[in-house]
Design brief:
The chain is built from 10 helices and 6 strands, in the order βαααβααβαβαβαβαα. By secondary structure, the chain is α/β, with parallel strands linked by helices. Bound molecules: cyclic guanosine diphosphate-ribose. Cyclic guanosine diphosphate-ribose binds at residues 87-90, 92, 108-109, 114, 118, 149, 152, 156, 159, 183-185, 189.
Length: 263
């Protein structure tokens, strides 16, 4: 269904568009709207696929903009209930293990757009209307305004803007810095929370089972996060090894001492 790219695409350092991209987008949209969250059953997946493709086809893949994705965001727009938003940084697998069990909570992947785009790559070319399956630009080796990086920045910003009540973030306490100002969470999401809608950010600093406790709620990087949040008139709270998430980590390591008593 999707024609192979002509050989005359510009060469980039990153992997090309995910094979069968259009079919994957359509299939994931139907799975999400008809099975995962049937309250969104009326969403037009054919239109969502068409608008997603239009967001990057025939465009320079080093000049992607937030505006490119506005029609898609409006089409796929959904409301996340107050107190149910979960951000993450360097803890993707653990954050999603938790929201898979605690299905009332939403990470960006638990929304339609995040569910559709997760782990996909895509790009086009200003000189062609075809998908580039050979290669796509990367932030590190080519340009930061590539279609995938701009997409995640744009939808992460909207995800934060739409959040309300108490919001949560899963951080990695086994890193030297659990909070990194340069991360999407640190660079985009915390700056787009609305203080009139979001009254508290609750951080869960999780340590790998048996891993080093490099960072914790009392560390300098978390104090940095607290200062940014407090300056925005949002209350900051922090828990080391938040118990419900800790239980999930212990499922894989039931015999580890930190799992056998007092978690
Ligand atoms: N598949 C997803 N990717 C991303 C999401 C997301 O929700 N889903 N992102 C960002 N993102 C991409 O992941 C890496 C950085 O991760 P990583 O370095 O682990 O953490 P980040 O804080 O940069 O990004 C995670 C944060 O932003 C949203 C999500 O709502 C989380 O609260 C970088 O390429 C981002 O563009």
């Amino acid at each position: 269904m999707w024609p192979r790219s002509p050989p005359n695409h510009k060469e980039w350092q990153g992997s090309g568009t995910t094979a069968h991209f259009g079919d994957i987008v359509l299939g994931r949209c139907y799975t999400y709207t008809q099975i995962v969250r049937p309250e969104l059953r009326d969403k037009d997946c054919q239109k969502i696929q068409e608008v997603f493709l239009k967001s990057f086809l025939s465009k320079d893949p080093c000049d992607a903009t937030e505006q490119d994705y506005q029609p898609l965001i409006e089409l796929a727009n959904q409301t996340v209930p107050c107190n149910k938003t979960v951000f993450w940084s360097k803890t993707k697998e653990l954050a999603h293990q938790y929201t898979r069990v605690q299905q009332a909570l939403f990470t960006l992947e638990n929304t339609l757009l995040g569910y559709i785009a997760d782990d996909l790559s895509w790009c086009g070319d200003s000189g062609s209307s075809e998908i580039n399956y050979q290669s796509c630009p990367t932030r590190r080796d080519n340009c930061s305004s590539n279609p995938v990086s701009v997409f995640w920045n744009t939808v992460s910003k909207r995800f934060a803007e739409d959040a309300c009540g108490v919001v949560h973030v899963v951080l990695n306490g086994s890193l030297n810095e659990a909070f990194d100002r340069r991360s999407t969470f640190g660079r985009v999401e915390i700056h787009n929370l609305h203080p009139k809608k979001v009254h508290t950010l609750q951080a869960w600093v999780m340590h790998d089972i048996g891993g080093v406790r490099s960072d914790s709620c009392s560390s300098s990087s978390i104090r940095d996060l607290k200062s940014i949040i407090s300056e925005r008139n949002i209350t900051f709270t922090c828990q080391n090894n938040y118990r419900p998430v800790r239980f999930l980590q212990c499922v894989k390591n039931p015999e580890h001492p930190s799992c056998t008593s007092g978690i």
